[in-house]
Amino acid sequence: MSPLRRNTLGNHSARVWCVSPFPDNERVVSASHDGAVIVWNLRTMEEERRWDHERATAVAVSPDGKMVVSGGDDGALQLWDADSGDHLSGPWQQHENERRVWSVSWSPDGGRVASCSADDTLVIWNASSGEALLGPLQTEHKYVRAIAYCPKGRKVATGGHDSTIKIWNDDTGVLQVTLRGHTERVSSVAWTKCGSRIISGSVDRTVRVWDCLKEQTVHVIQHTGAINCIAVSDHVFATASADHTIHLWDLETYQRLDLDGSFELSKRDEAHCVALTADENTLVACTEKYQVYTFDIKEIVGGRLGRVGKAWDAIRHSRVVVAVYGMIVRVVKPLSFGFVQ
């Protein structure tokens, strides 16, 4: 496969740390050290809105697409109206002043925001009032690099410099689970949509898939450089690495879907963050060299879904021989014993 068509939305004037898609699949917002938080239109490839947040490092769009929260090196969060452009609230200040907010995440119902900081704390905020509902809670990560709300709500996952992933109750602050397996600091965490698995990336150059109920790793993917970011959608997930690569993976089989060079980046550049639109048509990446890129992934994801669909069709329209120790017991239709597409 030749490199996918890459579009440049625009460039910041400093490192771009984070991107987050809107649920309408038509916009994305980026946060940069140049102090700009910019909303880009994916159809026109033009800047739609711009806000100022000094040395911005983190950004996330609310589940309904109506609000955007940003965090920065100032240790504060700001809340913005995505439609009017108004500044709604902030600065929210509970993390230590001038300690970087590394990551922000919305609860599934849009009522809460979780943030984590270089001060080793997490905070759960009331999205309407900006009041801290929980925290600052010391995580003992030494330095918290990543935070993500569970799609099922009521708990958040954090990753940090102690090489662990921790799962917390967002009401009580009780530590529920600690996942151990990485050998260096954890840089990214993301939940699968079912809420039972976490995918994490680390400076140890691995991506780990975790079964949260069993508290164990179920799959490991090896990169040749530190993992910067992971993004998860319904059927695929993306990884961005300091080895100058972005890869797309099948969420069921963990097979790599892109071939060498599909996501083309300069060998002098690397993606700090990647995001996937909800329709799985677009991958967005922001980079060390001030860029925000989009890649059309419809063909890759569509091919993956086509193969799955054909497999199920084959199952539905064939007969399966059930055998025990080489002896044929019966021939049955797959749907008669519970195969469901």
UniProtKB/TrEMBL annotation:
Q: Does the keyword Repeat apply?
A: yes
Looking at the UniProt record for this protein, which Gene Ontology cellular component terms does it annotate, in alphabetical order? COPI vesicle coat
Superkingdom of this protein's organism: Eukaryota
What SUPFAM superfamilies does its record include? WD40 repeat-like
Q: What is this protein called?
A: Uncharacterized protein
Q: Where are the WD repeats?
A: 9-50, 57-90, 94-135, 137-169, 179-220, 220-259
InterPro entries from the entry?
A: Coatomer_complex_subunit, WD40/YVTN_repeat-like_dom_sf, WD40_PAC1, WD40_repeat_CS, WD40_repeat_dom_sf, WD40_rpt
Give any Pfam family that matches.
Answer: WD40
Ordered alphabetically, the record's keywords are: Repeat, WD repeat
The alphabetized list of GO BP terms reads: endoplasmic reticulum to Golgi vesicle-mediated transport; intra-Golgi vesicle-mediated transport; intracellular protein transport; retrograde vesicle-mediated transport, Golgi to endoplasmic reticulum
Species in which this protein is naturally found: Rhizopogon vesiculosus
